[in-house]
Structure formats: structure tokens, C-alpha cells
Amino acid sequence: MPGCCHYERDSQSPSAEAHQHHAKKDNEFYVKGNCASCKARIEKAAKTAGADSAEWSAEKQTVTLKFDASKTSSDKVLKAIADAGHDNEKYKTTDAVYKNLPGCCLYDRDIPFGEANPDVHFEEEAKHDDHKEHQQATHTEDHKPSEKSIEGVTITGSKAATALSKKEAGLVFNIDKKELLKAACCNLSESFETNATVDVSFSNAVTGTKQLKMLGLDQKYTSLTKELLPEIRGLASAYGLNFIPGRWIESIQLTKGGSTVTNGYESITGQINTELLKNAKEPETSLNIFADFNGRAEANITSVSPINDKWSQTFLLHGNGTFGDTDMNDDTFLDRPKGTQINAAYLLNYNDLEKSGFGSHFGINFLRDERTAGQIGFDKKIPQDKQGAYGVGIDISRFQVWNKTGYVFKGKPYQSLGWMNQYVYHQQDSFFGLRNYAGKQHTYYSNLIFESIIGNTNHKYKAGASFLYDGYEETYLMDDMKRNEIVPGIFAEYTLTGLKYTLVAGARADFHNLAGTQFTPRVNFKYDFTPQTILRLSAGRGFRTANVFAENQQYFASNRSIQILQNGGNIYGLRPEIAWNYGASLQQEFKLFGRKSSIVADFFRTDFQDQVLVDLDRSPQQLTFYNLEGKSFANSFQTQWDFTPFKNFDVRLAYKYYDVQADYIDGRREVPFMAKHRGFVNLAYATNKNDKGGFWSFDTTLNWVGKQRLPETSSNPAEFQLPVYSESYAVLNAQISRNFNKKIRAYLGGENLTSYYQKNAIVDFRNPFGNYFDGGMVYAPIMKANFYVGLDVTF
């Protein structure tokens, strides 16, 4: 089934033994393999050798045999399986037979029997009766692989909390719950603090908003999806990262560079997809309670349970509140907003693939978020023009409903049809001092995908059609702006799998009523020099329409006037943004200290054909938007080294270099708030588990950020001028957690333990209604060290 319609199938219940060797039954034997082609080959060889039945499990790397001992034996069956190309606990296949296996079937021969294969991969032809094995999520700290799919997806079964798939043509990182538990992952914006690929920073000193950046470019150029459906975009751009609670997340798939055309046209720098908690074989309810020393508290309840052998359901509930007045830099402004959020979701899954070939996933989500920021003493109940204190109020309501349904053709496990639909309503009412901004967004999205093969499973294709409707109503000051974006589209994608290479080439055409017809080609190529040395190349085009007000709310808490230099386009008078992204990466695995180690180096370049530039330099009292005339580019280089010097101790080191420049009206300049140099260190250690499953975990992350160009303020009075470049700084986070058993976990952590903060984060904070007031000039943390505690209980 197409990826748009993947859903959970018989996921495992949590288990502290997830990383221990599998306890085999008498009729169960270790057999190595990778994918559904392996499964078919293993089971066929076993039956040819006389077995009455054979069931191979990718998760366990075992085959379960049933046979008449008077007719055959396990020894004979395992010999036949080895002759077919699969190492097992009694026999090893020859090098010649192994090398002649299809590229997707080349399993890692170095992994000891009984340990999980970190790159078990289900190709798209795998949509057959193996309803127990299709999986997408990674192992978690106390969780077996649990996110199962009927699309070609990856099982990352190693102990690593973040894994780079060796099988994907693109550069795809799978992040599981174990990684998210290393830090105070209260929502999606805090899910990448231990990840070197994504940069997370505050974008505003008044609202405390966090934003992500990838490949040196703002969050808006990354496709942010939930369940492979469009999620954080449009009016949700500024605050949407806060709308996905960390405890709801089962896994995250992070793709650098151009992603598949089947997921749409907006991805330019990559895609971040979040999968929510879904099925479990046994009912499981979890409670999480969190509080920090600066007045933030939250609670999460998640409940996952089967209804019967075909139906299962998930209840997700989240509530948080920020109370008290936090002002660490004594500028009379709150360092983060006060307010509350209530967030609830219900998921329903149906799976009858074996009998009818049908499966379906339904979800509904409602959110209400209210925030107040600004000067201490501001009263939201009193109109802003009736009081002297500067205030900010942000009230958001959001409703979503979605469905994904798929059908696998009987007798053709490689052929499927999937259809996904989603409706989103988003409303924001807000004010920033004497300025008001309000918006409503109605979005309907539909995607239909058919996939099959051409001749054999080395030649696969997907084809389909999509439809997107965005209805916007915005008010800024006295201006009312309305528009409807209607975008039907068609696409096709071809995958060629060879012995050592994989090629994925696709293209789509979208017929945008305001931006015109757009053609989006993308290609990803992977070549395995050896199983440990992998080269990847990618190139692709993406386009998007800029929501200049919603995406730049971090500058609303200032007295900059907004100017749009219209250029004949149909969206705020501006043309759409169009960019090409090119990438190359080299992945090398080797043994260090007798343990697996890996180094990944990648380079990506993004070239804009057209871009809506956000110009903060023309005047410190002005925010100007206009289309690019000239060049705009971003060069991104990253190298990352993961290794385990000794048992239970993981080390991740990374360095990043960015060169991001654009031709503004008055010449080419570096894009502001982007450090050229960044360093990253993550250390994780866990003690051995005791008899009750208890253990300690210790995690620490150091981020070093080099100097950043700051917007031009030389025309301000001297006391309100910023330096040309910021200082470099380092931020240290750490956490200690204790798993008392399989059910109870407590944790204590600290953020920004170096206590580095931007002392003058707000320009002219004493006169917030004056000409020079500006809360958007943020390049560093705005809060000193903060500590938190939490408790997880599973029932």
C-alpha cells in the first residue's frame, strides 16, 4: 500500500527486553534476512525441503517450522535455506550465492544471531501475508518495534536511538522514543535537542517561540508532516511545533534534501514526518507528569488498546500550563508566555489485510491554546490601549480529522491502492501591543496512490493524483486579506533496484490557481561500494507560496512597519518561491573498539530561482518583503561520527558549516541569524538492567554556535544599536533518569547549564511603544539555566 496510507498492524506491547536476545521456541531457528523477498525465498526453500509450514520473522530474525519428523528434519530444512542464500544457526551460505542475492536482500553477515538487524527493510513488493512483520518505527528504550506499515518502510532494530537507514536511496534518519526520552521532550520543537541535523532556536524574545532550521534555511522550507499528512504550514507555521506533544510521538523520520514526490511539492530542504502512538497487542495506558523550576507544568495520558483482532484504538490527552512571572534578564518582560493548552486526539485502526486486503486508519484531533506575554503586570482583561504595560495575547483553536485507507490486490502483494484525506480548521486571534493579527485557515488535502511493478520487483512504480485546498482569511491592523489556493496535481515515481544500487526518480505537475502550473522533478540515487560504504546523490525542485504574515510573527513584537514590494504575483502581490536542492553524502561504517562505528559526511546546496526575501536591514523600523532579483543560495556541510567506546556508552560528534547568502535590494549579504560554524557533542550512558528491569540513564548534549550576522541597526541611536556579529556561545543540557522497573521511570534534567543568555534580547525594552522597540533580534537563549523533573508510569 502507498506510504500515504500506512497504519499500525499488530504492534508489540512495551517490553524492557526489547534489546535482549529473543527467547526461541523448540521449532524456531535463527535465519538472517532483510525484506519480504527474503521471507518468500526462505519459506519457499523450507517447504521445498519438506516442511509443512514455515513462517519467517524479520523482527526476530527467526523461522518457525512445522514438519513431519519421519519425512524431513530441521537440519535438512536449514541446509536448504542456506543453499538459497540465507545464513542460519546451523549452516552458512557461500559467498557466491550471497552476492547473487538482490540488493535489497543483502543482510549484514556480521551481526550475531539473536541480535536485531539495524537495517531490515521492507520493499514495496512486500505487501503480502506477512501481517506481523511490516514495521516502520524503531526500538525504544523499553519498547519493541511497534509501528507497522503496509508500505515499503524501514525497521530500525538496533539499539541506536537514532539510525540512518542503509537501504533508503535518500538520507533518512529514523528517530525513536528512546532518543526523545534523552531530553525534556515536551513537544515537537524540543524533539531535536539531541539531534545534530536540525537546528533549534528561539526566534522571538517576547513570545518565546522556537523554530527549526535545516540545511541553513528557515523551517518554512522543510515539509513538516504528521502521519505523512501536511501538518505545520500556513497559519500554523509560527506555533505549530508546540501542537504535537512529545509523549504522543512514536517515531520521527527525518529526510535531508528532496523527498519523494508522492508527498507533495513543498519540500525544499527535506521532510520531517511524525508518527503518533498506535496499536498494541495488549492494552497499555501511560501517564507522564512534568514540571520545571520556572513555572511550567504538563500532564500526558496515552492509552493504546486492541478492540478485537481487526480493530484497535488510541486515546491521547495532553494539558500544559505556564504560571508565574519569569524575567531572568530584568528587562520587565516575561521570558516566556504564560497560558494553557488542552490537546486531545483519538485514533482508530482497522486491519483485515489477510482476508479482504483492506486496512484503514482514522484520526481526529482538537486543540485549544491560549498565551499571554509582554511586560510583567500586563492584564489581558484590560484593552491594550487602556493600560501602559505592553502585552501580547495569542489564542489558537485547531481541529483536524483524517483518514487513510488502502487495499492490497489479492494474489498480487506488490500491487496496492491507497487514499488519504484530511481536513484542518485553524483559527488564531492575537495582538502585539497595539497591533492585531487574526487569521482563519480551512485546508482540505487528498492523495490517491497506486503502486505496482513492471515485470518484476526490481522495477517498481507509483502513480497518483492529489488535491489541496487552502482558504485563508487574515486581518493585520486594518487590512483584510482573503485568498483561496486550489491545487490539483498528478505524479509518478519509478524505483530501480540493482545489486549495488537503488534509483528513485519521480516528477509531479501541480496546477496552482494562483501560482500557475509547476513541474517538480526529484531523483535519489544510492550506490553501495561495499555493505559498509554507501554513496548517495540527490537533486530536486520544490515550490511553495509564502504566507508572509503568519510565517514572520516573530517580528510582530516590535514597532517595525510592514512593507510589501509587490511584483505582479497573485499572493500578497508576490510570486511563489521556487528552489533546486542538490546533495551528496558518504556513509562509512567500521569497527572501533570492537564495536560498530559510523561516519556520515554530507553536502547540500539550495539554489533559489525565486524567493520572498525578508529584509530586516533596509531600516530598523521597517520589515520589507519582496521577490528575489538575483541569486540566493545556501551551502550546508555536515559530518557526524557515532561510536560506542564501551558497552552502554554512545557518543555522537558533529560539525556543521553553513554559507547562506542572498541578493537583497542593496547588495549581496549573509542571511541574518545563521551561524557559519556549529559544533555538537552528545553522550549517552546506561547501566545494565537489574532483575526487575531497572537501570540508570545519563545523557548530556553540548551545542556550540558560532557568530551570526545581525540585522543592520546603525541608524538607531547608539544605545539601541546591535553589533555587526553576535558572540559565539555554547549551551549544555543534561538529564539523569531512573527506570525502577518496566512500569515506572523518573527523571531530572537541566537546560542551558552554561547559563549563557542574550542580555539585551529586546531593543529599547524601556519604551515598548517607541520607534526603536524590537523583540525579534534574538540570536541566543533568552533564559538562564532551568531545571525540571518528571515521572512516567505505565499501567
UniProtKB/TrEMBL annotation:
Q: Compositional bias of type Basic and acidic residues: which residue ranges?
A: 1-11
| Residue numbers spanned by region Disordered | 1-23, 125-149
Keyword Zinc in annotation: no
According to the UniProt record, one GO cellular component term is: cell outer membrane
Provide the GO MF annotations for this entry. metal ion binding; siderophore uptake transmembrane transporter activity
HMA domain mapped to chain residues = 24-89
Q: Name one GO biological process term.
A: siderophore transmembrane transport
Q: Which Gene3D superfamilies match?
A: 3.30.70.100, TonB-dependent receptor, beta-barrel domain, TonB-dependent receptor, plug domain
Assigned keywords, A-Z: Cell outer membrane, Membrane, Receptor, Signal, TonB box, Transmembrane, Transmembrane beta strand, Transport
Topology within the bilayer: Multi-pass membrane protein
Chief site of localization: membrane
Could you tell me which InterPro entries the record lists for this protein? Beta-barrel_TonB, Beta-barrel_TonB_sf, HMA_dom, HMA_dom_sf, Plug_dom_sf, TonB-dep_rcpt-like
Ranges that cross the membrane = none
Compartment annotation: Cell outer membrane
Q: Which Pfam families match?
A: HMA, TonB_dep_Rec_b-barrel
Name under which the protein is recorded? TonB-dependent receptor
The scientific name of the source species is Chryseobacterium antibioticum
